Amino acid sequence: MSLTTPLTLHDLIDASPDAILVVDVAGAIILVNRRAEHLLGYTRDELLGRPFTILVAPATDDLVPGVQVLRDSARSLTTHDATPTVEVVAQRKDGSLVPVEVSLNGLETGARKLVVAAVRDISQRKRMELERLSLLARERSARAEAEAAVQLRDAFLATVTHDLKQPLTNIHARAQVIDELAAELEPGQTSAQIRRLADRIVHTSSEMADVLAELLEVSRLQLGQPLELERTPTDITALARRVVDELHLAEGQSIHLQLPAEPLIGFWDEQRLERVLRNLLGNALKYSRGTGHVTLSARRDADALVVDVTDDGIGIPPGELDGIFAWFRRGTNAVGVTAGAGVGLAGVRQIVEQHGGAVWATSVEGSGSTFTIRLPLQFQLSGNLTR
Q1: Residue ranges per domain, the chain?
Q2: Is 3.40.190.10 the CATH number for 9-121?
Q3: In this structure, are residues 288 and 368 in contact, taking their beta carbons and an 8 Å threshold?
Q4: How many Cβ atoms are within 10 Å of 205's Cβ, its own excluded?
Q5: Hey, is 20 helix, strand or coil?
Q6: Architecture of domain 231-386 in CATH?
Q7: Could you read off the pLDDT of 60-92 as tens digits, one per residue?
């Protein structure tokens, strides 16, 4: 085309990088360019005379305007000079969808009012926005995980410091007393007091070993390492009696046992199950100071062991039962009553669930709590049922 050849309206709109549709006041398409044919998949003749809302998909995302918004925007051009821009999802002739940005401009040719719609494919921009949002989400997730790891580390260190300081102080003090008493004894002489102190040192050191084992398992679980159970035939009745005998009871406290006369044997990790009983009984005694009445019962229910530990202590506030087994979580009414870092019950749940069992609590604040564990007497290994 030479420079002296007059340019037509068709020439101008065909030169546009955007799809162009010219619409009359009734909403019918009266002119389109080649880019519109390419974008929508229709020929020029197929588009002429059709309503301009043909380019909007029947069903679109909640995030994009639909036919009514586009129609209202076009109608607004007849009353003011604004240039509305809306995003819609266009539907091609073959049914495929493409997100587009539609810019509407009013055009007057004498007494005739028209609307020029410039339609731009924004697929690439939408993909980039989605990628950016995905990157932001991953970044937030990574930051949250890092912050959680720092919090866990701080809680871990605080727990070690808090829970081991008092047992170490007790061991040191009792060892000093034993040393002083032993220095005063004649060869061959015995003392019931020394034996009691030695027994308490053994008990305190066992408590420390439990705390260390729990904290070690916390760190392993945070690294995604499951517990490795060492299952052996274990008699829960004998284990319960031994744990109760080894617990140091304060004055006025007692543990009532309700156990079957015959052995109740399952294939469990005895050391970890002992820690479960120590934790449940220790908490029951700790939170029922002043009353101190604790009951441990065990029974067989079909192919499962059911153990209940019941106390008449401070109980758990309503709404906190679901979170009582979370790491580093304690009842709000326990703060100031007795020391603790919220590790024991989380460890109980982990051990019980690793055995294929379940643990739960029922409680009335101010009237006591019952913690129940249910463990299978059999377990599945490599597809074979093993006792």
Answers
A1: 9-121, 128-222, 231-386
A2: no
A3: yes
A4: 14
A5: strand
A6: 2-Layer Sandwich (3.30)
A7: 444 344 455 556 655 555 445 555 777 888 888
Strands (E), 128-169: none
375 neighbors 268 (Cβ within 8 angstroms): yes
Q: Which of 84, 39, 98, 89 is nearest to 64 (CA)?
A: 89
Q: Strand, coil or helix: what is 358?
A: strand
How many Å is the Cα radius of gyration of the chain?
38
Looking at per-residue pLDDT, the higher value among 260 and 328 belongs to 260
DSSP 162-220: HHHHHHHHHHHHHHHHHHHHHHHSPTT---HHHHHHHHHHHHHHHHHHHHHHHHHHHHH
**Of 118, 115, 31, which is closest to residue 76 (Cα–Cα)?**
115
- Helix, strand, or coil (residue 359): strand
128-222 belongs to CATH 1.10.287.130: yes
The tally of CA atoms less than 13 A away on the side-chain side of residue 363 is 25
How far, in Å, CA of 120 to CA of 102, rounded? Answer: 7
Q: CB neighbours (10 Å) of residue 81?
A: 8
Query: Are the beta carbons of 222 and 328 closer than 8 angstroms?
Result: no
Output phi, psi for 366, to 5 deg.
Answer: 90, -10
What 3-state class would DSSP assign to 327? coil
pLDDT of residue 361: 92
How would you write 291-316 as a 3-class SS string? Answer: CCEEEEEEEEECCEEEEEEEECCCCC
In percent, the amount of the chain with pLDDT more than 90 equals 17
Q: Which amino acid is at 383?
A: G
Helix (H/G/I), strand (E/B), else coil: 385: strand
Find out whether 303 and 376 touch, Cβ atoms under 8 Å: yes
pLDDT band with cut points at 50, 70 and 90 for residue 253: confident
Read off the pTM.
0.50
**Alpha-carbon separation of residue 368 from 248, 289, 340, 365 (angstroms):** 21, 11, 18, 7
Where are the strands (E) in 43-169, listed by range?
Answer: 85-91, 97-109, 112-121
pLDDT at 371: 95
